[in-house]
Write a structure and sequence with these properties.
CATH topology: Rossmann fold
Structural class: alpha/beta
Mean pLDDT: 91
Helix content: 25-40%
Radius of gyration: 17 Å
Low-confidence stretches: none
CATH architecture: 3-Layer(aba) Sandwich
Strand order of the largest sheet: 6-7-8-3-9-10
Oligomer: single chain
Shape: globular
Order of helices and strands: EEEHEEHEHHHEHEHEE
CATH class: Alpha Beta
CATH superfamily: P-loop containing nucleotide triphosphate hydrolases
Number of domains: 1
Length: 231
């Protein structure tokens, strides 16, 4: 079953009358449970495609489908509900709430979902321990390094075990050991709980871990490579 689909998707940005084509007639289907990397040079359209899949932006042409729902047909409140209950995001800029502690940032989505305070705290502390930040749970983002903030962002994205996690360069600010630990955690969630992961990345480690690599260049898909299943 397709979890995400782009059907004839193009995206054109206009700045001061100048058009920039970010995506060109992309057709791509991501099946439920996939562990997929979107790879390509800067400006290839990776982040734009992630944003469209997450309903954070709308295509200029074409249709984007999440779990059977045409995102373009939803109201803003319906789209917000889709994101809240089905999607987890990891942004390059972290997008942490500066006045919240690490634990409060991780709890935030669960609070919106109506999870009880005691359960939110339990799950937040468990995931922070898993990403090696249990001792920094009460620190605010400004008191943490970039790599630590990135780990908080990853923890927040995966703590509620959404149907899909969209991750924009999730290992960009991490050392190789920490990056490997996070990728192992994501792979475990993928294999054991069926969470679908889509990464945009330059990182060879992420591409090596991915079971499917979709390569983009100049806004178009130029290759779609799948690894053979382990015997």
């Amino acid at each position: 079953m397709s979890m995400l689909e782009a059907r004839g998707v193009s995206k054109v940005y206009k700045t001061r009358g100048v058009e920039t084509i970010a995506l060109r007639d992309v057709d791509l289907s991501i099946e439920s449970g996939e562990f997929t990397a979107l790879a390509g040079p800067s400006g290839s359209g990776k982040t734009t495609l992630l944003n469209l899949f997450g309903g954070l932006d709308a295509p200029t042409e074409g249709v984007v489908v999440l779990d059977g729902d045409d995102l373009g047909s939803l109201t803003s409140s319906q789209l917000a509900e889709e994101r809240l209950h089905k999607l987890g995001f990891v942004f390059q800029a972290y997008n942490l709430i500066p006045v919240f502690s690490a634990r409060e940032n991780v709890e935030f989505v669960m609070e919106l979902q109506g999870v009880s305070p005691s359960e939110r705290r339990r799950r937040a502390m468990a995931i922070l321990e898993e990403v090696g930040l249990g001792d920094l749970a009460d620190k605010r983002p400004m008191e943490m390094s970039g790599g630590q903030q990135q780990r908080v962002a990853v923890a927040r994205a995966i703590v509620s075990q959404p149907r899909v996690v969209l991750a924009d360069e999730p290992t960009a600010n991490l050392d190789s050991k920490t990056a490997g630990t996070l990728l192992d955690l994501m792979e475990e969630l993928n294999r054991e709980h069926g969470v679908t992961f889509v990464f945009s990345t330059h990182d060879p480690m992420v591409i090596e871990k991915a079971r499917r690599t979709v390569r983009l260049r100049d806004g178009a898909v130029v290759a779609d490579e799948r690894k053979a299943a382990a015997s």
